[in-house]
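Lab notebook, bench 4. The sequencing result for the construct came back, and we need a structural model before the next group meeting so we can plan mutations. Quick request posted to the team channel:

Model the 3D structure of this chain.
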Amino acid sequence: MASIALTIAGSDSGGGAGIQADLKSFSALGVYGASVITTVTAQNTKTVAAVHVIPAHMVGMQIRTVLNDLDVKAIKIGMLATSEIIVAVARSLAGFKGQIVLDPVMVAKSGDALLDESAVSALLQHLVPRATLLTPNLPEAAKLLGASPAMSLAEMLAQGQTLCSKGVAAVLMKGGHRQGETCVDLLVTPQSHWRFEAPRLATRNTHGTGCSLSSAITAELAKGKPLNEAVARAHGWLHEAIKRADGLQVGHGHGPVHHFHEWWP
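Done. Here's the predicted structure in token form:
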């Protein structure tokens, strides 16, 4: 029987992030993927040209329809765009008993805003307390806390612990925005923390890394892996996907990672 994961996120017409990256990550890791689309973007490796928001009631209907039939074990939540969609998602997941990975998507790699300012408080109120894991990068964590981005590992840990106090079970503080030869992520729970590190790779082809990491963790959780093992497997898989990204030669901006590096060159 296939393990099933669901992604609730926006569509990236360029194929490198969002729903497309999530489904590729699920498939690459041996998990069947279902999807709920929250927004449709006109997007490529260089820019987000336009965003069309799906009506909140339709987002809720997609979720309920999928969950009424498919035995979904884990859900990844990405781009939500508005407070109305956030509320609709929270209501539609009220009876869901599986794992939830919440990736607080706020800004695209191109710098384009992907979440309304008014939606940040709605995210904290309605979805953060429901999540198994929150996966912010450092600017996103800072925005959720109304603080400056963490500069040191000690600050990353402190911000992760503060986010845990908002009700989420665990936080993965992604350290890709820090400087240095090594990229360090911290998995933080109220009781403990784990460190995941890898050499920083010299490439501009990192479009969709956040989406791909959170969906890879979701895939491993759907297969029944404990959280720290799921993060470890996803972290190693994404590092290799970034390492192999230049070989794809997709687009003229920030290209995608190679989701299927374990399957084809």
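The chain has a mean pLDDT of 94.
Will bring this to the meeting.
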